[in-house]
């Protein structure tokens, strides 16, 4: 190899390249290169890393030299799509604000659900010796944890992985369902329909459980005819109108704001007024919908900003991890004029 070739190699080689050549994780390379005290690395693995460093002419870059032993003032956030969704990007905002408050910078990677991009993002963050990683999805669901996250402290945000041992921060779907239904009960309604989604999810089961619990608390008899199923979109809400009217409901709790928007369309076509003829409450507080319907929609907010902030606090040990490893964040009511 010529000196020129060597120079190009030095400039372009990363810890990930070294890890691949040595057959170890990026975290192991980081521990060897930075001579991290207390790191448990076998002699054979250490030698393979050192040999790969020499063969590839790897040199830590200027950033790596500024990092403390084994950690930095960075926190990583790996997301599948939240940076491009209309309201869930608040997770990033909340995490960023909370990170700054405690002297950290947030490194964000939006992977669009691409596994290769996800692995690259995690490897890059490990190379930068992040304090830990928030792993987030754009809607509340169970996930399979990427194996690379085993190399650093991780908190799951708006998702969970049973049996993984990882802490998670998720919206309290059941409490949100109770809150939405109580808003209608407190307005004097006794015959309240619930349009739930057809898609299995924590939101589907949790919001239904909350709806039923609120009826029980108010001494209102449950009625299966009032629990309807629809696609979780505007068309689903519109298609539910006949069933809602047939049920004799005076108020409707919709699974989300898009369903409520469709129901608005159907009620308007029938010449029915909200809330005079029928009251409506949604879920999500998707501002581009809820605040701009006529009348503006009363709803329950998905607390995306607080999910991001709470994730950072949990990662830094500021908030105590619950024994169940699941931290549930309340979904507050947003009162407008549809009740």
Automatic annotation (TrEMBL):
Stored Pfam families: LacI, Peripla_BP_3
Domain HTH lacI-type, residue spans: 13-69
Keyword Transcription regulation: yes
Keywords for this protein: DNA-binding, Repressor, Transcription, Transcription regulation
One Gene Ontology molecular-function label: transcription cis-regulatory region binding
InterPro entries per record: HTH_LacI, LacI/GalR-like_sensor, Lambda_DNA-bd_dom_sf, Peripla_BP_I
Lineage: superkingdom: Bacteria
Protein name, entry field: LacI family DNA-binding transcriptional regulator
Organism of provenance: Mycetocola reblochoni
């Amino acid at each position: 190899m010529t000196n020129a070739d060597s120079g190009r190699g030095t400039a372009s080689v990363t810890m990930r390249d070294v890890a691949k050549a040595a057959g170890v994780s990026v975290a192991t390379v980081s521990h060897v290169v930075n001579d991290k005290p207390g790191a448990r690395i076998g002699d054979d693995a250490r030698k393979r890393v050192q040999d790969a460093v020499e063969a590839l002419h790897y040199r830590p870059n200027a950033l790596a030299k500024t990092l403390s032993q084994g950690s930095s003032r960075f926190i990583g956030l790996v997301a599948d799509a939240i940076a491009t969704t209309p309201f869930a990007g608040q997770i990033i905002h909340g995490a960023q604000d909370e990170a700054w408050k405690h002297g950290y910078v947030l490194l964000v990677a939006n992977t669009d659900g691409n596994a290769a991009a996800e692995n690259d993002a995690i490897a890059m963050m490990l190379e930068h010796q992040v304090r830990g990683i928030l792993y987030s999805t754009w809607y509340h669901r169970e996930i399979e944890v990427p194996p690379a996250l085993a190399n650093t402290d991780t908190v799951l945000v708006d998702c969970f992985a049973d049996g993984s041992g990882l802490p998670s921060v998720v919206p309290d779907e059941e409490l949100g369902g109770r809150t939405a239904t109580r808003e209608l009960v407190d307005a004097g309604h006794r015959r309240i329909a619930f349009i739930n989604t057809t898609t299995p999810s924590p939101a589907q089961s949790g919001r239904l459980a909350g709806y039923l619990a609120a009826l029980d608390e108010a001494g209102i008899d449950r009625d299966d005819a009032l629990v309807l199923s629809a696609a979780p979109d505007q068309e689903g809400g519109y298609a539910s109108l006949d069933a809602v009217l047939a049920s004799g409901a005076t108020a409707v709790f919709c699974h989300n704001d898009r369903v409520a928007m469709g129901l608005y369309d159907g009620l308007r076509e029938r010449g029915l007024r909200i809330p005079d003829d029928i009251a409506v409450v949604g879920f999500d507080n998707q501002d581009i919908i809820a605040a701009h319907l006529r009348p503006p929609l009363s709803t329950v907010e998905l607390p995306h900003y607080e999910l991001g902030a709470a994730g950072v606090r949990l990662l830094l040990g500021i908030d105590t991890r619950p024994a169940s490893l699941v931290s549930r964040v309340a979904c507050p009511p947003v009162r407008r004029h549809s009740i």
